[in-house]
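Ticket 4471: requesting a sanity check on a complex prediction with 4'-phosphopantetheine. Repro inputs:
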Amino acid sequence: MTTAIYPGSFDPVTVGHLDIIKRASKLFDRVIVAVLVNMEKRPWFTIEERTELLKKVTEGMPNVEIAGFDGLLVDFAAQKKASAIVKGLRAVSDFEYEFQMALTNRKLDDTIETVFLTSSAENMFLSSSIVKQVGLLGGDIAAFVPECIKDEILLRIKQRIKK
Ligand code: PNS
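Returned structure tokens:
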């Protein structure tokens, strides 16, 4: 059985992430979407909240699991006996950062391969930061996030505006 980890901040999950999850779930027997800590980011949602949002949007996907972890990605992958890390690549601008992470992870554990899936053309511009920025400035985020979690994200945006 092939297990892949799809790691990220998912703050919050977007339709772009969901597209990668769906496509990865066709390539691997089991996909574990892992909400991890990115020390360079200040998240809006707790790991638990992000995990819940991901569970909602992946309901009905039998080989997809959601987990939160606050340690090293390679340790989590080893714990889950995963052979691959899946990452989405949107544009050349992602490449340097992703390449650095892939090489670091390989140096830490060379039994786990990083596999890059190219973003779908319609999601090339999309990121969690864009969702938050558009929402904060009163724009419509409907096309950017799965419908079933839109209201929860809008609520958090309203809370941030009040701060
Ligand atoms: O969605 P992001 O923020 O680009 O995802 C980055 C993430 C969370 C996958 C990365 O920061 C990560 O792997 N964090 C866990 C800690 C770790 O293993 N760091 C070393 C690898 S660079």
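Notes from triage: The chain has one domain: 3-124. Leaving this open until the requester confirms.
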